[in-house]
């Protein structure tokens, strides 16, 4: 057996893998040229300027066409998109929103920023929301569910949508990490009441920051546009919306997307299909080769394998300690792998677990709910079990055939070595 690099052996790869920034790794002169046009026009604001280039509008039109939704809105970040979506639905003080235990802090953070309180549902072996756990936390104070397809793998939406419809609550799809993911042939983000996307640095497409809101509901769209722009709807004529301003106006915030971001994202959007095709091909090849070499290696399950974009390959290790050793050994082989969110459910972060906000009273956690919101460390046991022992391999769209071979060789080498040590210990 080859000696592990962590123990002084020769690494499986001579250089590290490409950085885990899918959209950024395919950036080129196209994005630079389009941004330059906006700068030369001296018009980086989307709604007016000396010579507006309307890049955000172009992005919205491309997204609407390709995602198959009538209404899209570019915003400043995905966190902003979540807040806009929640406010479009009328979520606020005194409401609860169901959030999966496995997600980034921004998901429950946006709920709190909207003056509501998150309650947490467990995951299953997809590492996404477990529909069978929804009833445990459902009460009449819950007004919405936020689903999160983690790292490019779709959520099992049919039972979640049915659950929500039966109880008259809304579904927001937080597709921050998973642009291009599909579920039964439809794009994630377009199946619920409203969907959101991220264009932050490490996302599938990027402008450094940025986000988008999509919906098929004209009323939700009207409210989303107004909330993201100080309560104003500047281009109602574009959508044939002629409702009097005083009838629908309310106070909002400023979550507008810059036309510079829009310019970059127009060119990024044109590369989306190629990025997903390459990631999916590489991920499937790696998984297939590993399955042939390591029949005992368990992979994260997908609720719809055809809709998985292949941005990350999740592998289950026997324990958190073995997962830590596996990651350390692979990193030494120049094969970067990681635990998502440090292997902890999001509710274990201290600001969530202890319900801390900037307000002295703990607003909005201070609301006198009939069923008080209490977080305990073990309330989502599957997340507690799986998250610290699920190792992710990011799959870059610029991986070569040689990269794939070296990745497989390195994982096989490390897995067999660790298994050998565990067997001797037994």
TrEMBL record:
Iron in keyword set: no
Alphabetic keyword roster: Aminotransferase, Pyridoxal phosphate, Transferase
SUPFAM superfamilies for the chain: PLP-dependent transferases
Gene Ontology MF terms: transaminase activity
Homology family: Belongs to the DegT/DnrJ/EryC1 family.
Name the UniProt record assigns to this protein: DegT/DnrJ/EryC1/StrS family aminotransferase
Provenance organism: Paenibacillus mendelii
């Amino acid at each position: 057996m080859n000696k592990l690099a962590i123990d002084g052996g020769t690494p499986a790869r001579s250089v590290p893998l490409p950085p885990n920034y899918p959209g950024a790794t395919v950036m080129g002169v196209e994005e630079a040229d389009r941004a330059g046009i906006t700068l030369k026009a001296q018009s980086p604001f989307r709604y007016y300027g000396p010579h507006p280039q309307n890049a955000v509008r172009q992005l919205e039109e491309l997204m609407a066409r390709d995602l198959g939704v009538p209404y899209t809105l570019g915003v400043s970040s995905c966190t902003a998109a979540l807040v806009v979506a929640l406010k479009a639905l009328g979520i606020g003080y005194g409401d609860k929103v169901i959030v999966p235990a496995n997600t980034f802090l921004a998901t429950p953070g946006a709920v709190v920023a909207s003056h509501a309180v998150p309650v947490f549902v467990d995951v299953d072996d997809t590492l996404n929301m477990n529909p069978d756990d929804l009833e445990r936390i459902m009460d009449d104070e819950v007004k919405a569910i936020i689903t999160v397809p983690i790292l490019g793998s779709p959520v099992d939406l049919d039972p979640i949508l049915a659950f929500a419809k039966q109880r008259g609550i809304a579904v927001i799809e937080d597709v921050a990490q998973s642009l291009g993911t599909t579920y039964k042939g439809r794009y994630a983000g377009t199946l619920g009441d409203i969907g959101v996307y991220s264009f932050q640095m490490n996302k599938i497409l990027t402008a450094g920051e940025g986000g988008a809101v999509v919906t098929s509901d004209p009323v939700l769209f009207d409210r989303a546009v107004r909330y993201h722009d100080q309560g104003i709807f500047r281009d109602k004529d574009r959508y044939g919306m002629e409702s009097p301003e005083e009838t629908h106006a309310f106070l909002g915030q400023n979550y507008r997307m810059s036309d510079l971001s829009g310019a970059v994202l127009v060119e990024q959007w044109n590369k989306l299909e190629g990025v997903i095709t390459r990631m999916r091909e590489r991920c499937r090849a790696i998984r297939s080769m590993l399955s042939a070499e390591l029949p005992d290696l368990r992979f994260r399950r997908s609720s719809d394998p055809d809709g998985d974009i292949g941005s990350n390959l999740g592998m289950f290790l026997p324990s958190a300690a073995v997962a830590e050793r596996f990651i350390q050994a692979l990193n030494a082989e120049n094969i970067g792998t990681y635990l998502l969110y440090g292997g902890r459910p999001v509710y274990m972060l201290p600001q969530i677990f202890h319900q801390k906000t900037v307000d002295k009273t703990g607003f909005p956690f201070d609301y006198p709910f009939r069923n008080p919101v209490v977080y305990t460390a073990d309330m989502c046991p599957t997340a507690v079990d799986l998250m610290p022992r699920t190792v992710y391999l990011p799959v870059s769209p610029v991986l070569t055939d040689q990269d794939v071979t070296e990745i497989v060789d390195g994982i096989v080498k490390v897995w067999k070595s660790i298994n050998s040590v565990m067997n001797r210990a037994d």
